[in-house]
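If you are new to this repository, start here. Below is one unmodified record pulled from the training split, so you can see the exact layout before writing a loader.
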Amino acid sequence: MRILASVCLSTVVLAAAAQNQPAYLNPALTPQQRAADLVGRMTLEEKSLQMVNGAAAIPRLNVPAYDYWNEGLHGVARSGYATMFPQAIGMAATWDAPLLKQIGDVIATEARAKNNEALRRNNHDIYFGLTFWSPNINIFRDPRWGRGQETYGEDPHLTTQLGVNFIEGLQGTDPKFYKVIATPKHFAVHSGPEEGRHKFDVEPTPHDLWDTYLPQFRAAIVDAKADSIMCAYNRIDGQPACGSKLLLVDILRNDWKFQGFVTSDCGAIDDFFRPNTHQTEPDAEHADKAALLAGTDTNCGSTYRKLGDAVKSGLIKESDIDVSLRRLFEARVRLGLFDPAGSVPYAQIPFSQVNSPANAAVAKRAAEESMVLLKNDGILPLKAGKYKTIAVIGPNGASLSSLEGNYNGMAHDPRMPVDALRSALSGTNVVYAPGAPYVEGFPMPVSRTMLHPANGSQEQGLKAEYFGAANFNGTPVTTRVDPELNFDWSGVSPLTNAPDSAFAVRWTGTLTAPVAGTYQFLLRTGRCRGCNTSQHYKVLIDGKEVTVSRTVAPATPNTPVRINGTTGLPETGNTERPGAFSVNFADNKQSHTIQVDFLRDSASQGSGIRLEWTPTPATLLPEALEAANKSDLVVAMLGLSPDLEGEEMPVKLPGFVGGDRTDISLPASQQALLQGLIATGKPTIVVLLNGSALAINLADEKANAILESWYPGEAGSTALADTLVGRNNPSGRLPITFYKSESDLPGFEDYSMQNRTYRYFKGAPLYGFGFGLSYTKFAYSGLKLAKAKLNAGDTLTAEVTVKNTGKVAGEEVAELYLLPPAEGNAGLSPKQQLEGFQRVMLKPGESRKLTFTLTPRQLSEVDAKGTRAIQPGTYAIAIGGAQPKDPRATATAQTAGFTIQGTQPLPH
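And here is the target side for that same chain:
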């Protein structure tokens, strides 16, 4: 673990006040003056150690250590329990900008609470700071990109509105101090492929650059005033993004007047010179020069530790380092990190704010609003008592990771979807079977259907005894039945919110396979990032005990894994390689007793435990079809997993490579499962959990209903169950286009926007951007524009009335699209572009008049040279609950035309 500062900051400030106070500790001075004073007191060697994300303490100046790397994409991540919201793509599906501001505020509140507690413990470690590398506002231009789940979708306007509100929520409203500092990323033109990101050169047209890839970044800096920004891995027009004069000097500093600091993506500056990367520079010193002089202020990594050498060799001047350091320390001053805690309002936030009931209520609302109903033949909402037995089938029916998404916080006690549906349908017999692996050859958690707490028991799961120390002495603190061994305890204890509690768990019961055979099982304890925590586990099969010990400290040598005397995969320190063992099942009724012991001497930065196996589709399908045939209704919980789609992942399986997808269809194993379920003739509802668009053509054709629920966070299971039974009327909208096939799209490596997203796509999508159904109906009428003729530079106001014409209350999302002249702008303008949206709750029969105001920038277009201007011509406005010509829309959009006279250029 990183060496902690020797003194707490409050002690530093008090001591300074009692002596001759240095200027950097004087709250009466400006942040710029204080930062300049502090930097002026440092040696060159000290300065270099401040330029990496893990900035070292400077004891002689009483400067504590600080790590700029903190994550808060959809909840504070990697620092213990936190309120976990839907993944960013799910938050985007809410189309609720004020809610995003509230979510940002909750995340900032919990971040401050954690930071305040950490400082009380003299902990200055990674993930406990106040500079957050979020939000990800790259455009999700292609559904094959695995990190698209982290974004707000494919549209610049939607991304802009949600991103601005999220940033403002994070940074707070205090006139003097930031609550936390937001870092929108990745600047710029960055959206896959993951495998090529360290050497890929993007050459966007000027039109695409300014029309699609930069507007949301401009808004984040100019409007939301984010105080930090992260540069990307890729090159742009030949220069690495973190060394791009175009991006970091011409646009960011000169055009947008950015005054904050730039951080590199992790290892991005290494990519300037290391083999098989950009290799635009010969060595680390030259890479440091290129990045620093372009304006990258801090390096996630260690390359900037060579800055002192670059100064001594004459590549840069020490004053060049000072420019960046002043920006970095000004940010820390604005966070209140050099002021007495009593004078910083956010420093008073108590730890009890973490996981508070009020915060949980926001997560529940977000999950509810993110649900997108794609199809419904009238089967939904489910009617109480209509179905005696319901079969929940699919790998996502009991998946923890598919609630979490990536860059996730730790929910305290998340419920699995099947359990939430069972609670929502009390009195109905709800049975479960996984039915298929996500994709053939990929490990999945051992299903609860294979586990029982005692021989002969019909209850599913294993008996779990939790002990309040790292041993099994005495009486368990808690005894219960855990349905699966699938726990994410990264930095937390299952027994308490305290971040440093030791504990032990013993699971006992029986293990049964659905089909006879010999199967390999994996016990995965995950990875411990930068910690000195020890985790140990032991497995007994049929009473034969061979201890499996794993110490996570990086210096630990390989330890052989032995199960029943057989050596399996080695456990290597600080890796995620699992222990492996095989069990033979002579027939599918044979059970083996199993005992798993797990202990950890500290919860600080530790991980969890998963018992997995790799079944073939043929192993799981018979059990699922049997359950379906014995049921009255099937709920197929299908989709993807963040273990398959995500950031630069070591996955190479059919349809998946490096975290991206090569095939946007439902994986073949799940497709076969769905075909089998539909063939039973039972009514079938498909529930999707995933982070990107799926070509679910079979489900669209044959299923009775389809609900898209994304990676929905800590309240996601409850939200999707409540949606199915009608307690939540779905109101989410797609933030991305669902295509019928990847063959409808250009190549993944092609960054041209032609034939991409709803703005430029020429074909017929499966489901259009902005689409989503409700359990009620809405109608639009009386669209009225304030002017039919505008001069360039005028604003435009539009009014429309929306009415709930159905029988139940519901929320409608009214969407305003601008339709530019088809013949204008040399044909470069999108065929339509979102320029406004509002959520409105309406009771049956209730009407509401909505007003939209479009600014000159919203009425402008970008030409071939990248110049944004208001251009003359005949335009139209369309307002409705979907795109104006969406064939699936249930309400006719209102349309009105207008003209613009004259031309007016707008600044970049």
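Two things worth knowing about this chain: Residues 1-18, 528-533, 546-576 have pLDDT under 50 and may be disordered. The longest helix spans residues 97-120.
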